Amino acid sequence: MSDPISMTLAEARDALKAKKISSTELTTALVRSVEQSRGLNAFVTETPDRAMAMAAASDARLAKGEGGALEGLPLAIKDLFCTKGVKTTAGSRILGNFVPPYESTVTQNLWNAGAVMLGKTNMDEFAMGSSNETSAAGPVFNPWRAKNSNANLVPGGSSGGSAAAVAGDLCLAATGTDTGGSIRQPAAVTGTVGLKPTYGRCSRFGIVAFASSLDQAGPMTKTVRDAAIMLGSMASVDAKDSTSVDVPVPDYEKLLEGGIKGLKVGIPKEYRIDGVPADIGGLWDKGAAWLKAQGAEIVEVSLPHTKYALPTYYIVAPAEASSNLARYDGVRFGHRTSSSIHDITDLYEKSRAEGFGAEVQRRILIGTYVLSAGYYDAYYARAQKLRTLIKRDFDKAFESCDVLLTPATPGPAFGVGEKTSDPVSMYLNDVFTVTVNLAGLPGLSVPAGLTDNGLPLGLQLIGKAFDEGTVLRAGLAIEQAADFRHKPANWWRSA
Amino acid sequence: MNAPATKLIKGQTGDWEIVIGMEVHAQVLSKSKLFSGASTEFGAEPNSQVSFIDAGMPGMLPVINEKCVEQAVRTGLGLKAKINLSSIFDRKNYFYPDLPQGYQISQYKNPIVGEGEVTIDLKDGESRLVGIERLHLEQDAGKSLHDQHPDSSYVDLNRSGIALMEIVTKPHMRTSEEASAFLRKLRAIVRYLGTCDGNMDEGSMRADVNVSVCRVGGYEKFRESGDFKHLGTRCEIKNVNSMRFIAQAVEYEARRQIEIIEGGGAIRQETRLYDSRQGETRSMRSKEEAHDYRYFPDPDLLPLELDANWVADIAKSLPELPDEKKSRFMGLGLSAYDASVLVAERELADYYEELAKGVDAKAAANWLNNEILGRLNRDGLSIVQSPVSAAANNAIVAMISDKTISGKIAKDLLDIVWSEGGDPRAIVEARGLRQVTDTGAIDAAIEAVIAANPEKVEEVKAKPKLAAWFVGQVMKQTGGKANPAAVNAALKVRLNLPDEG
After folding, report:
1. Is A182 known to be catalytic?
2. A212 at B interface, C-beta within 8 A
3. Under a CB-based contact definition with an 8 Å cutoff, are residues A321 and A285 in contact?
4. Could A323 and B294 be called an inter-chain contact, meaning their C-beta atoms sit closer than 8 Å?
5. Do A359 and A128 touch, CB atoms closer than 8 A?
6. Cα–Cα distance, B386 to B309 (Å, whole number)
7. CB contact under 8 A, A326 and B93
8. N or C: which end of chain A has fewer CB within 10 A?
9. What is the full per-residue pLDDT of chain A (495 aa) written as tens digits?
């Protein structure tokens, strides 16, 4: 058998069921992989003891022929998910020592299915970023490097730690969250699969909120099949989240079957934007050709309000964030300034100035501004109207197709520090992904090829609400056609 | 209803009118909070009734409490208001230590209840309509405690997240008496409905009072046009917590404003505080200093959609409200004044209805007003604490009206039951308090008195006023149980007295 750490989730599951390996063996190997890979800075908290205890319990269940869908499978959890008794920082200094006394619904679902927790992964602070460089715990390095280069690249963000952990075989799969592309963009630039489910598919309860109307948890995996398996356990309706939706959770793995013959795939013409490298466009065309070759019908569709998506997103998301982050005030939990204060306002100002990083502060300022009296109508109210129009674009497009195919990102992984001084160029990373969050639809990023200098690129499939099944099936078709078997060179591992 | 009569205030430069509007925060009667399962019970240890949601912990989400929604709808129906089948929860953003989320979940542009009205009852028995602008649901904040430590403040979050109904009136009140009467009536309505306990001491009901003054005629123009330019600049007096303070605060504030205007100044729109010890209002913050609350729809909550049938079912389940009860009582023969006194508290009305069962309504009301309420007041008790039940009083009143006992004996009997308890009818029998209307017994007593006092018989023929002496003697002879009217009648016949005697 190959090195257990490089198994896919499905392979490991089958090996456990067939008793070819125990969860303890698998977990031991991955705990070791995490330790060896500290150079990537993918984890902010490692939980090896908990992992081994969970593995032992899984082995006991497996021995009795029991166990859930993820029994004994070691996962990494983005540090945005509250985990009972395990520090949860959201990548922020302001929550530097926060240990939640409760568990998020999504992670609870995973533990109920038998999964094993390896630890918590690094991320952009409060999920605000596209490079994992805004984290209070420092940047994550992408396991991938360009051909003939030793330069460190970013793993994308905000779920950069999870993406790096999956790409570098530090875990079998990971959780991410996606507010504007935070699952799909890091998946695309690390050669992994990332699925943002329909808004309401996974409960937001216990996930530190960034922008409540956009945030959605999803899986980050090595294969499309693994994403289907993970989503089946993560998804649920939840009485504790009023925005979760009571739609039955299907067997997503089963929905992978059947091929794509007759599937209508829409190509949105507005996604051909200036300034995107040629290899992105080329890959996109190739993706369409692959699907067509497998029997899909390719149709051109129009999403006319696409150009408003980024500005709309950068009003709605900061507005909600400015309110969601008001609770971090140094009063009840989290960082409180240790310098002398003269009144409550001083306590707020110093605690928040020390606790929040520059990008979070920038977005709080933007959000506060767009909601202010006299500006609300010009910004927030207009953004909401545009959001409705963007949603309507998708509704219209889906009248003539079943799924959309687009690039996932405007480019491959970039260098650490390359875009940190230019927030707008950083924001442009989300150009193909934010529309999906604004419309609340499912989006999947699948690795589809390498750039000339050897860096992974992804294609995105966008589906109708709660039609993750079709998205995954089309994703599988891309995955099979692309036959993406590349792995990053193993440069980071310590002995 | 007629346009409100104007009460004028004399200033140095002419007459002024007061215009008053109110915002009342009424705590919803429910076991748990508006968006969490934590208990709402009053008086618990600080921070013992706080869920992770109420404490604003990371990742916690609000989930609407259906009971609170039902109570808001019930209240809206009781205010004869429009129920909005779709309403929206918004976030009102501001920083304060007793506001853990950094925002209050409230309803801003789309409240659950729209326009309605309340009829207020004034002392002279007159009634007036006060328009309701809206009612919305919102979370209460926690409580900051500044007096527990020399240089720190403490926060108690037990109240954080408790459901409040904010009820906003139109500027339809014209005197401090009307303002108090409005709050009294609103309190009665929510207590009848069981949607708020109306307990002002525990803060279950708190009022902000908006006061402005205008020249005579300005208000009429406002009512005709709806244009606020005819009214003066208003000041909001925060958290006035008793009917008495409302009246005092309004009077003080109106005079203060008139003085400023007549002195050549202008009223600044501001929030003021009523200091009940000094009997004055003081500036808290001006309009310019007011927070920018940055309201926006709470993305954690979907729009609140109500089913019209559900609302109709609640409407069907509403109890008889004070106004309906009052007119029913008036139909039984009570005066408007008596009826409005009796319906002011649901418990009092219920007590009255049981007391009045099968007896004369007016007699029952008089008995309740004159005998029961007087004694309760003397003993510092409320109607529910009355030591004599409504049923026992009903028996006493019934015995008066069928002449089993005299009115005088009835009062003595009530005193006995009040202090010793027991069944009034049994006491009447056991102690022989029954009024003697048996003419045989009365005649026998009269004969005995005549036989013993033949000289008085002669005297009374010349001086008919002496009949009173005979009545007294006969009453004495019967141990006070003879029906005085029957004694009078029998004596007249026996002594051949003229009718006017």
Report:
1. yes
2. yes
3. no
4. yes
5. yes
6. 41
7. yes
8. C
9. 568 999 999 999 999 999 999 999 999 999 999 999 999 999 999 999 999 999 999 999 999 999 999 999 999 999 999 999 999 999 999 999 999 999 999 999 999 999 999 999 999 999 999 999 999 999 999 999 999 999 999 999 999 999 999 999 999 999 999 999 999 999 999 999 999 999 999 999 999 999 999 999 999 999 999 999 999 999 999 999 999 999 999 999 999 999 999 999 999 999 998 878 888 999 999 999 999 999 999 999 999 999 999 999 999 999 999 999 999 999 999 999 999 999 999 999 999 999 999 999 999 999 999 999 999 999 999 999 999 999 999 999 999 999 999 999 999 999 999 998 888 888 888 999 999 999 999 999 999 999 999 999 999 999 999 999 999 999 999 999 999 989 999 999 987
Look at A104 and B59 and tell me if their CB atoms are within 8 Å: yes
CB–CB of A410/A276 below 8 Å?
yes
Indicate which CATH number applies to the domain containing A18: 3.90.1300.10
The three-class DSSP label of residue B343 is helix
Give catalytic status of residue A2 as yes or no. Answer: no
Minimum CA–CA partner of A369 in chain B: B294
Partners of residue B89 on adjacent β-strands: none
**How crowded is residue B276: how many other Cβ atoms within 10 Å of its Cβ?**
13
Residue type, A99: V
Taking a C-beta distance cutoff of 8 angstroms, is the pair A165, A43 a contact? Answer: yes
Report yes or no on A418 lying in a domain. Answer: no
Indicate the SS3 state at residue A417: coil
Closest-approach residue (CA) in chain A for B37:
A240
Convert B190-214 to b/e letters by CB count within 10 Å (16 or more is b).
bbbbebbbbebeebbbbbbbbbbbb
Phi/psi for B151 (5° steps) reads: -130, 20
Domain ranges across chain B: 9-290+305-314, 320-430, 439-495
From edge to edge, which strands make up the β-sheet containing A173-178?
Answer: A43-46, A116-121, A74-78, A173-178, A216-221, A193-196, A443-450, A456-463, A403-407, A264-268, A297-301
Q: Chain A contacts of B58, Cβ < 8 Å?
A: 82, 88, 90, 95, 98, 100, 208-209, 327, 333
> What φ, ψ does residue B209 adopt, rounded to 5°?
-115, 125
A433 domain-assigned: no
Cα end-to-end span (Å), chain B: 51
**Side chain identity at B421, as an amino acid letter?**
G
A37 flagged as catalytic: no
- Judge if the upstream peptide bond of residue B225 is cis by omega within 30 degrees of 0: no
* Contact between B58 and A82 using a beta-carbon 8 Å cutoff: yes
Catalytic hit among A22, A78, A445, A464? A78
The number of folded domains in chain A is 1
Q: Which residues pair with B86 in a beta bridge?
A: B305
Q: What is the DSSP letter of B111?
A: -
**DSSP 8-state symbol, A86:** B
Chain A interface disruption, residue of B34, B50, B51, B57, most A CBs within 10 A:
B57
- As beta bridge partners, residue B138 has B164
Distance CA A176, CA A216 (A): 9
Strands A193-196 and A443-450 turn out to be antiparallel
Q: Do B103 and A213 touch (CB under 8 A)?
A: no
Question: What sections of A179-265 are H helices per DSSP?
Answer: 184-189, 224-234, 252-255
**A411 secondary structure, DSSP code:** S
How far apart, in Å, do the first and last CA atoms of chain A sit? 22
| B152 interaction partners in chain A (CB closer than 8 Å) | none
Contact A306, A393 (CB under 8 A): yes
Burial of A195 (C-beta count, 10 Å sphere; 0-12/13-18/19+): buried
Q: Cβ separation of B61 and A205 shorter than 8 Å?
A: yes
